Amino acid sequence: MSLTLRPYQPSDAAVITSWLKSEYLMRQWCADRYERYPVTSEDMNAYYSKYIDGQNSLALTLVDGEEIVGYITLRILEGNPSEHRLGFVIVDDSKRGRGLGKTLVSLAVNYAFEKLGASKISLAVFKNNPVAVHCYEAAGFTRVVKNVIECYKCLGDTWECIEMELNRMQ
Length: 170
Description:
Blueprint: E1 3-7, H1 13-18, H2 23-30, H3 41-51, E2 57-64, E3 67-77, E4 80-91, H4 100-114, E5 120-126, H5 130-138, E6 142-144, E7 151-154, E8 157-167
Parallel strand pairs: 4-5
Antiparallel strand pairs: 1-2, 2-3, 3-4, 5-8, 6-8, 7-8
């Protein structure tokens, strides 16, 4: 495997959205950021055009040679340019169990620390996604307690998030 991160390209959307096999999986990936399931390439690219500016927010695609195998976003938290937030983390579901998630997260963390000058990386992951929680812990993230728990209305329920972070000094 020759895994590298590169900037997201609109042509990546068809592959990435094909991994969202159910609305439940889609909501675990994006919470309420997309209005309807299934998410189309056009939906993803419209979101990208609206929210990813290439400076305060980046979208990155994980490739194995030419094959698209993962996707992740990084954004600067408002008012704190030293903290970057991971989001929209997903890998090709047909390749799960090979460490792609940990590699994707680790490459994005290194990118944020080395190229973007971040001193802290944070994320929120749904409690009902233990595989993702394990992936983030394997990549070095630790759970932190916040005064307010981030929650989203998904599929008629309230989904609570676990807040996690990784500091450059760790």
